[in-house]
């Protein structure tokens, strides 16, 4: 893989500034069960957790990409 250009690094840094990490700790014996559950639904663990949070809060959690597309579409 080629090293990132300055522009790519700046773009990734700007993207990462819009995100907040949430660390979830679970006992080791549950990790494989959680991973299998996510995979059975065709999801990553991150996407599984987001979908569970969406159900709990009753709101869709848009990705940065989805937000950017909505903003672009609404400005046209």
Question: What structural keywords apply?
Answer:
76 residues, mainly alpha, 66% helix, extended
Walk me through this protein's architecture.
This protein is mainly alpha-helical. The termini are far apart. It is built from four helices and no strands.
Sequence-ordered SSE layout with sheet pairings:
Layout: H1 6-17, H2 28-40, H3 45-57, H4 64-75
In short:
The protein has about 80 residues and is mostly helical.
Number of helices: 4
Helix content: 55-70%
Q: Would you tell me the overall average pLDDT?
A: 91
Q: State the end-to-end CA separation.
A: 36 Å
Secondary-structure element order, N to C: HHHH
Report the biggest beta sheet as strand number plus sense, adding barrel if it closes: none
Give Rg in angstroms.
Answer: 16 Å
Shape: extended
Unreliable residue stretches? none
Structural class: mainly alpha
Q: What percentage of amino acids are in beta strands?
A: under 5%
Number of DSSP-assigned strands = 0
